[in-house]
Structure formats: C-alpha cells, structure tokens
Amino acid sequence: MFDLEEELKNLPDEPGVYIMHSEDDTVIYVGKAKILKNRVRQYFQKNSNHTPKVIAMVSNIAYFEYIVTDSETEALALECNLIKKYRPKYNILLKDDKHYPYIKVTINEPYPKILKVRKLQKDGAKYYGPYVSGITLKNTLEIVQKLFKPPSCRRKFPEDIRKGRPCLNYHINNCFAPCTGKVTKEEYRQVYFNICRFLDGNHNELLSELKCEMKMAAEQQRYEKAADLRDKIRAIQDIEEHQKIINTAKQDNRDVIALAREDAVAFCEVFFIRSGKVLGHESYKIDNTQHSTESEILTDFVKQFYQGIDYIPEEILTEYEINDCEVISEWLRGIKKKKVTILNPKRGNKRNMVEMVRKNADIALGNYKIKVMKEREKNALLDNMQEVLGLEKRPMRIEAYDISNTQGADNVGGMVVFENGRSAKRKYRIFKIKSFEGADDYAAMREVIYRRFRHAVDEEDMIRRGEILRKDAKFLPLPDLILLDGGKGHLSVITELMDMMEQDIPVFGMVKNDKHKTRGLISHDGEIELSPTSPVFKLITHIQDEVHNTAITYHRKLRGKIVSELDKINGIGEKRRKALLTIFASVDKIKEASIDELMNVKEMDRKSAEAVFNYFHRGNNV
Length: 622
What we know:
The protein is an alpha+beta fold. The protein is 45% helix and 18% strand. Strands 12, 13, 14, 15, 16, 17, 18 and 19 form an eight-stranded mixed sheet that branches. It has a five-stranded mixed sheet with strand order 9-8-7-10-11.
C-alpha cells in the first residue's frame, strides 16, 4: 500500500526524475528536479497556486516513484528518455520523431561517392544537412548531378575502370564516365572536391576556379569544354541569387524557434540555418497546451526535439526564455561534444530572425484553423446525412455503385468511395461482369456487390494469416453506407443479397428525374425528400455523377478495345459491327461462332462471315 505522507518524507535532497502513476499503473507524468524533495512536495501542498492542468494531474496520482541521478543534467537526459518511452498524458508531447536525411560525400575514400543517408557517422566523410524536406534534398542532388555529372551507376572504382562500355548517362552527357579510363584519379577527386565546395556554399571560390578553367579551355580552342564550364557558372550564379542569406557577415549554423498558440494547440516553427543560409523549415503541432506558458511549451519542445535529432547546431535562438537554460545547454553539449548556446534575443538581427520565424508559425496555426473549420463543416454535413437517412452512425465511408453497358453488351460496374465527405479516387474499383451476357442491370449489380464483399472476406483471411497488412487491403474497411444508381428494383435485389451475406449496412437508391439528373434517394419506405439546395443533396449529386462517370469511362475504354478489334477485319464496317455485337453481345461469343452462325446475322454475307471467322482462327489476332 502506497503511503503518500511517508513517501514524501523520505524524498532525498538530490537531483533526479520523478514518475507519477495512475491507479491502473499508467505513467501520467514524468518530471526532473534539481532537488527531488522540494519539487515533488510542491504538487501535494494544498495552498499552492496550481494550474488547472496540475490540479487535474494530482487528482489522478495513485503513487509516484523516483530515480536519483548524479546531476541535474543527467536527470534531464533521463526525463527525455522516459517521456519518449511512456508518452505521459500530462506532459507536453512532440509527436514528430524524425531522422532527417543528409547528403554524404565519401571524400575520405580514394574514389569518393555521393550518397543519401539518415545517420551521421564519424567515418571521415563529409555530411551536408539535415534536409528537412525530401524535395529539397532531391532537388539539391539533381543540381549536383547536372553541374558535376558524378557517376550514378553501381560500378566500383577503380575496379571497374575499362570494364564494359559506358552506360547511357555518358552518351546523354550526364556522367563524366571515369569507367572509360580517360579520367585520372586526381581529376576524379577534383570533381568531388568541387561538389563539396558547392554544398559548403563556397560559391565564390568555386566560381573563380571555374572561370579560370573556362578561359584556359577557350584559349586552347576546346570550345565544347568551355561551353560546359560556362553553363556550370551560370547555373551556380542562378542558385546563389535564389538562396536567402540570413547573415552575410558571419556564416553560422543555427536553429531559430518561435511559437504560435491558440487555446489548447500550439505550433513550434523551426528554421534550419546552415552556413548562413536557410536550408529549410518545419512546423510541429503540440496539443494540450492550454494551461502551459510559452516558456514551458518551448522548454519541453527543445528537450524533446533535440533528444533524437542527429545534428545540433552551435546556436539555438528561441522566441521566449527557456527554463533551465544552462542545464539544457550543458545536456546538448554532452550530446554534440561542442558548446551549444541557447539565446533569447531581444533586439537586433537575431531578433529579426526570430520575428520572421514567428510569422511562419502564425501561418502554420492559421492553416491548421482553416483545416479544422473544413473538418467541422464536413462533420456537420455527415451528421446531417445521418439524421436525414436515420443512420445509426455517421457515414464516414460511403460507397456507390453503377452499371454500364451497350444494349446488354460489355457489362461493367463502377464503385466509388467517399471518405469524410470527399472522394477517395485511389479507392475506386471497376468490375467486368463475368457471370452472364446480355442486359440485366439487377444481376450485374448483384455480381459487383457480391464480388466486392467476397474480396473483403478474402483480405480478412489474408490479414489473419499475415500475408498482407490491413493498410494494404483494397476492399477494407467496409462502408458505413451503400448508394446504388437505381430505384426500388436495385434496392430490393441488393438488400436481399446483403441479408444473405449477413451484412448489416444501410442501402439506398439514387434516383434521377426525366432529365437524367439526380432527384434524390429512395428507401424501402419510399423517396426521401431533400431540398435541392441542401448540402446533403449536393453531396449525393456529386457521388452519383462520380460513380456514373467511373462506370461509363471504363465501359467506353473496354468497348473501344472491342471496336478497334473488329475494325481490323476487312469488310466489317460500323453497321456490321453493331449488328454482330447486338446478336452475340461480346467479342468472345463472336470468336466462338461458326461461319453459318455469323451468316445468320442479317447484315452479314458469306464473304464477311468468312473474313470474321478467318481473322479469329488463323492467328491474326494479337
């Protein structure tokens, strides 16, 4: 039995970490303290001016434990690890846990390579980054490839020099082709030294050398080489113009962190500045911040953000003062093995940087608020649909089906999916009817729905056997609502099928007016009245148009293949083609027909019948 009073008396006068537990043993808060006795006792003092968050947390504490450390810095490191491990409810949590990519140049090797990596290593290679945007890294590598043309194949040097012919990249002038043996080791390494200088941002020195090389090449009448160097110089100058210089006097590496908040959500914006240039920036959303100060939010953010990141700059600028700034700086110094300074600038160029980052944090918060408003609108629409249709739950996933054919030929079915009120085009499916030929929309709809649910059952089995992951399933999850392009007949057939399959999913028909436009929905109890101006009616119209277009587009594509096949046969024009498809319903049936059966078609004669028969039976059909 945990005796609170006794445990509080026994708390040591030493630094450490305290861990608060709820009745079910869940860790609900982790904190660090310079003196455990003083810090933990504060939570349980009745006269303390606690925030609502602390009051709520204390009311849920069943017991606590603590770990003594040798220093406050060690306590800070342990606190960060435990927060990451337990994700406590009452700690401010940073959800993003990323390892940003780097560009690695193995300049420590006799024949260097350029690579994309996720981890920094002390191996003598040069690393550039981190690149917070994969697109930025990709673009940088593309620029390097265009400017310096390093080998991008899997050949190893010097082993593969003069082995085999140069690859396509050489012939399209995208590689300097050391495999030909025409490039010396020194020339090879010089290319990579230039790449490093380019990535370092030492453009002036690089441009000066390239200009000298260009002039020399022109004097030697090597005009092709001179033109190539000219293009490199122009490209580097263009890049330099578009890069934003933050501090031309001092080319520092620093991160700048600012904060925007409203109610229970905050956005921390980080700008990554390397060699005086903005390399990238990123926003981090933090929830449950309503009872925390700006300093508390930034303090927790800094601790969690730099715990798992590979690169820590020499300087970190923050919009607000960081609590325990000296302890955190010492902790980061232990990770980086170099001095790390955390500053809260009040004026000057550094304060201007912070203000710029703050503007971006405001934008991130504003975009989030717009997103939330849109989500609320969608939820209101779906709630309205739930009420109008008398559904048990909000229809988060709606599936709609339609059938398309030409006079009973080439039956196809289309399935569209709407999630959260928006079309999910990647989840659309199309079906070619297999069980019968001819015009029977009810049977076609029954086959499509049956196959859709049969696939779902099969995927559930595959998931249980570990053959696929649920996220990779194509027919899961099941819908909350099914809409059929059709009236009471379709509704009756599919309701019967759903009962047979023991699927308790609401089904409604989408009916059209005399002008083939959406009129509304129909159930077994009759039509459901909807105002043409209501959001629910507009959504249903959109869904009906989508499923109709999906089915008819597939049908036209399929029929186009059939028409083009028959058009290859001499003597078969549009009239005979239509007549054949009307009688036989599909090309497969036409293939199986005898000459006499083909001649029974009114528009056909023996010559045309023999032409069709011979086309499909003499290997001419590809």
